[in-house]
Amino acid sequence: xxxxxxxxxxxxxxxxxxxxxxxxxxxxxxxxxxxxxxxxxxxxxxxxxxxxxxxxxxxxxxxxxxxxxxxxxxxxxxxxxxxxxxxxxxxxxxxxxxxxxxxxxxxxxxxxxxxxxxxxxxxxxxxxxxxxxxxxxxxxxxxxxxxxxxxxxxxxxxxxxxxxxxxxxxxxxxxxxxxxxxxxxxxxxxxxxxxxxxxxxx
Length: 202
Hints:
- By secondary structure, the chain is an alpha+beta fold.
- The chain has 9 helices and 8 strands.
- The longest helix has 17 residues.
- The chain is globular.
- The protein starts with a helix and ends in a 14-residue tail after the last strand.
């Protein structure tokens, strides 16, 4: 795997940096505003922005009296495309996708994800319920990795990076039991409460 891609993936492996990316996906912000939104010190935000800048994910722009940072969406697309190429290069083995919790996903689930995900983004929301459950579980496992409440604004930002219809995705995640909503916040439900019948959609 190319070194630039590994650098970008390492930069995105930190929860705080992912939250910064989520904020900047909506609009450019100065350090002070990012720090205020995420309840971090400006020094900590500067450190994380430096790592993201080294990975080519953000770029600064002078806007007196501040230095404003914006997300390089093109770079995110390039990362998604590179990951897609890496998956295709594995040949037939790519259907043995390993889930975040360890066990390999069945080939039927891998086929569904390959059909609806393009360069890391959701091309369309499945109309078929069983296929939709597979995609929703993938989102629950990969987009919301922290066991904490997510404000609706952050949920929208994270989902917008994958598909423009954030309202539908948000509603499906709640209606199908992957997330719970209360007082304007969202939280992942325990995995044992997630829908079980999702592997027969091949």
